[in-house]
Design brief:
globular; 372 residues; single chain; 67% helix; 18 helices
């Protein structure tokens, strides 16, 4: 039985969806969207579900995750219902709904809570780094009020909550999608083909690239390296490359003290990609060059600045190691870099970063259905 929630529209507004109730279902947004297909009517269908209060149907649909927020729908909406902003808000709502602790709801719905939680984690991580050198005066002062065992235990709890939240959220999404997925094909759905399609999309952003090819698009004549799809691609692969470099360092048990060490080369190239992408993403938002870049919420701003700061401080440290410069400012930069990097990981399940797992999952169900 379909259950309608009359207060759902008000709920979505808390996640950033504004004016979407002005939509009169004209279909203009669907017509201009380059990703629309015969069986895919977003964002019109999603807005309709939102107005009707059909939240279960929204959470069980991959459509919000198939949108890359190019903004064409919002630019051309005759009612200024801002479909692009609505789709972004639905993704935030979905992340908060899949995540079991309620932390994400606090962070996405309240800027004050978002700042408080991120600052609290940053302070705790700073304390954790300082206690790694127990002979310092600051560490002795910290241990007076907060014993090492307590700090260590709190750290384990935070890491466990993050890991469980990621797994729980993925499981919740899969369960909802499977219930909503009806395969009418008598043939077995090619699982591996869907996996390959997801990998191809992540590797090339082919669907995202099609958003920039529409006639009249602001980005159509721009070089590829300035387009939103490449910015997104740069940030994503930059982070993945840095993660790979960190894992290599851990496995080889070598701090990569030489710039010619394989993990250092991978890290440098990945860092350049991530810094390039995040710098352009921040610049576009500061300049507000299109409507979609004029509506960035606090959570997205902080996420981008964290990535950017992690990139800048990472290169600072790399240069310091190459020059063998052992000075106080470098130790401060090291703490900042480590705190920001660790916080990005710890907030993985509770921030915009979570779409790194939810979007591939949604794409898998989408391609799996297409392959049937």
């Amino acid at each position: 039985m379909t259950k309608i929630d009359p207060y759902f529209a008000d709920e979505l507004k808390k996640y950033g969806a504004e004016d979407f109730e002005a939509c009169f279902n004209c279909g203009n947004c669907t017509a201009v969207c380059s990703l629309t297909e015969q069986s895919l009517f977003f964002p019109r269908m999603m807005i309709r579900l939102g107005i009707l209060g059909l939240k279960k149907e929204i959470l069980a649909s991959p459509e919000p995750w198939l949108c890359y927020s190019c903004g064409d729908c919002s630019e051309t909406c005759p009612r200024q219902a801002n479909p692009g902003q609505f789709m972004a808000a639905v993704r935030r709502y979905a992340i908060a709904s899949y995540e079991p602790t309620g932390i994400t709801k606090l962070m996405f719905r309240s800027s004050s809570w978002f700042i408080l939680i991120t600052l609290t984690i940053a302070i705790f991580l700073g304390f954790f780094l300082l206690i790694l050198k127990p002979e310092t005066e600051v560490t002795r002062w910290i241990f007076t009020y907060l014993p090492y065992d307590v700090i260590h235990f709190i750290g384990l709890i935070i890491i466990t909550i993050t890991g469980v939240s990621v797994i729980w959220g993925m499981a919740a999404m899969i369960i909802r999608f499977r219930k909503n997925s009806v395969n009418t094909s008598p043939q077995k759905v090619p699982f591996l083909k869907a996996i390959r399609a997801v990998i191809h999309e992540i590797a090339t952003m082919k669907r995202y690239q099609s958003c920039d090819k529409e006639e009249g698009s602001f980005w159509k004549q721009k070089p590829f390296y300035l387009k939103p799809w490449f910015i997104h691609w740069s940030i994503m692969w930059g982070f993945i490359g840095l993660l790979a470099a960190t894992i290599l360092d851990f496995l080889l048990k070598d701090p990569a003290s030489t710039i010619w060490w394989p993990s250092r080369i991978i890290g440098t190239m990945a860092g350049l990609l991530m810094l390039f992408g995040s710098s352009l993403a921040i610049f576009y938002r500061l300049k507000k060059i299109t409507k979609v870049y004029d509506e960035t919420c606090l959570a997205d701003w902080i996420f981008l600045f964290f990535i950017w700061i992690a990139g800048v401080t990472g290169f600072w440290l790399e240069i310091s190691v190459a020059l063998e410069a052992d000075i106080l400012v470098n130790h401060v930069v090291f703490i900042i870099h480590t705190v920001i990097s660790m916080e990005l990981v710890l907030l993985f399940a509770f921030s915009k970063f979570a779409h790194a797992v939810y979007r591939p999952l949604a794409l898998f169900f989408y391609f799996k259905k297409q392959s049937a």
